[in-house]
Every structure is written in C-alpha cells, then in structure tokens.
Amino acid sequence: MWIAAIAWDSRGYEVVCTHSDGRSLAPWRMGAGETDVLVRRLGELAAETGCEVAAVLDSTNGLLDGPLLAAGVTVLRADPWLLPQRPENASVSAEQLARHAAPALNRLVRLSTEVGTLAGRLDDLRRNIRDSADVERELTLRGLYLVRGAPTAPRVALTFDDGPQPPHTDGVLDVLREFQVPATFFCVGLHADAHPATLERIASEGHHIGNHTWSHPYLPDLTRDELDFQIEATNRAIRRVTGTDPRMLRPPYGSRTPDVLRWIADHGMATVLWDNDPCDWAMPGTAAIVDNAVRQTGWGSVVLMHDGGGDRSQTVRALSDIIRQLTEDGYQFATVDETLEHHAAHLAGTPAC
Q1: Where along the chain do the CATH 3.20.20.370 domains lie?
Q2: Which residue in 85, 239, 276, 318 has the fewest CB atoms around it within 10 Å?
Q3: Does the domain made of 2-110 have the CATH classification 2.60.40?
Q4: For this structure, is 216 an active site residue?
Q5: What are 87-110's pLDDT values in tens digits?
Q6: Active-site residue, 161 included
Q7: Catalytic residue among 168, 195, 216, 306
Q8: pLDDT 10s digits, 298-344
Q9: Given 65, 161, 193, 280, the catalytic residue
Q10: Domain 124-348, architecture per CATH
Q11: What are the DSSP calls for 280-325, one per residue?
Q12: Is there a contact between 95 and 75 (Cβ–Cβ < 8 Å)?
C-alpha cells in the first residue's frame, strides 16, 4: 500500500508518498487550486504500481477529503494525539505525517462520503454544541451569533461555503445574476488566495463575503493561536481583493466550543450557522437538493450550500429551481449581514429598515 501524506501551509499543499515496503517518492507541492492534479496523480500511482493508495490528512485539513473520496481514493484521518505539535500556521509537515501515520494505520480513522472528516467525531461534536448553549445565547444578544433570522417576514438567506472554486462558483454566480438574487459566500483562505479573480467577481456582483477559515479545520482541535491564524490569514486574503475584512465567520462543520465562540467574538466577528442543510455536500442528486432546500425553508431561514470543496455541479443545477420555487412561495432573498441586522432589531423590539 502507498501512503500519500498531505500537509497544508500558507502556500498550498505538500505530498509525501511512502510504500509499506519502504519505497518512497520525491515530495511534491501543489497549489490550493490544483486538487484535480492531486487526484489524477494518486490515481496514476495506483494504476502504475497496482497498489492501493491511501491519502492521510490531519484534522486541520478539511478541503481534500470530499474530492478524494469522490474519486474512489481511501482517505484516513490522523488525529492530533498521534502527531507532533503543529505550528500555528500549518499542519505538521507531510514527512512527519507520513512517518507517524504509517506505523499507526490501525489507529487512523477511515473517512466516508456520508460523514466526511467528522467520522468518529459526531458524539464529540454534539457534546460541544450542548456545552456551548449559554455562550450562544449571550452572543446572540450581542448580535454575534446567528442560526436563523427573525421569523417576522418571508426572507431567506442563501449561503455558499468552501469556495471560491472555479468553475462551480462561477456557475452559482451566473444563476444568481440571472435571477438578481443576493447571496453570502463563506470563503476558505486557501481558495480565496488561489482564485482572486473569482473572489473579486463575488464582491463586484454585490454578494456578501464571510470567513470560513484558512484550511477548513475541526475547530475544537485548535489552540487560540492556531484559530487566530485561521481567521487572520483568511481575512488578509479576502481584504487584498475586496479592500475590507469579513465581519462574519462560519465554523467548518458547525464545530465549536464555548472557548472557540468567545475567541471568534474577540475578533469582533459574528459566528453564523444555518437552520437549513439540503446536504448538497453529499451529492444526493439535483432533485434531492431542490426538495430538501425548499421543504426545510421557513421565514428567516439560512440555507447552507457549497460552491467549493468538490464537484458542485449538482448544486449549480439545483439553484435555479430552488430560487424559482421559493420565489413562487413568496420569499424574498437577503444576505446574512442583512439577516443579522433584522434579527438584532427583532430582539431589540425595534423595526428594521
């Protein structure tokens, strides 16, 4: 078996491939916009050698599992307690990841399309969410936490995570432009840095941009300094193109703890979640995405969809019907910053503009 250890840093990804018989290949790097190159090279390695290839990621690398799993690659997660301490601005190196993962393959977590990188962590995620309830209430009153908007008008916010990633982000933007619908894009720093032209198009066409961290990590695994890097590096990448810092952050997977929520608030940023998940990330088919999105929408809903992190052609195809059906049901579309404003006014008992 080949182990392809994949590390991330501020420039993209590094890959080290080692074989169970001791062979190794020269390390290679790729940019964040070259996921297709990674998938193709691992496929070629498997075909040329006749051996299975297993990609090994750590829990701070949440952008590659989807494309790799969709391509039929085995994906394993190495948890922090199996690895050396990380630097603040990167994962452990690919060489370290390979060296520590290879002898501990039976302790790595195998990921699946159904659960993704949360495999084996759903109970932990639910427990952290329960523990965060008091802080969530406090931040809601301060206008720094949102799951859904005020149920006082038929407004809905469409949101897109994990981009910008051509061509899927462009496909989403084409549909939004056709229907003259505003949306909110929660961008990951690695992709924002790799695709500035697409990011500029999002901003120039009037959509709102939020922060979705640099490498899409499971946030409870991070120290304060690591979270600060994830936030600040992504803000810098977005500011270089738009001239402004995002004021909202969506935690990957909705992962949080009381400390994580407070640390985000310390940046003056609102944590934004969702109440409507059509599960487009699992690629259930265009019709299922449309049905899920429309059926789960209520007044004030925040809809979670994706324009990056994998093949999002189903989402692009579904978007026209989602907008058309919600419009027929009397809904108006708002960005998340507008939704936050209306929600704050609702809590304060004052009319919003």
Answers
A1: 124-348
A2: 85
A3: no
A4: no
A5: 999 999 999 999 998 888 999 999
A6: yes
A7: 306
A8: 999 999 999 999 999 999 999 999 999 999 999 999 999 999 888 87
A9: 161
A10: Alpha-Beta Barrel (3.20)
A11: GGG---HHHHHHHHHHT--TTEEEEEESSSS--HHHHHHHHHHHHH
A12: no
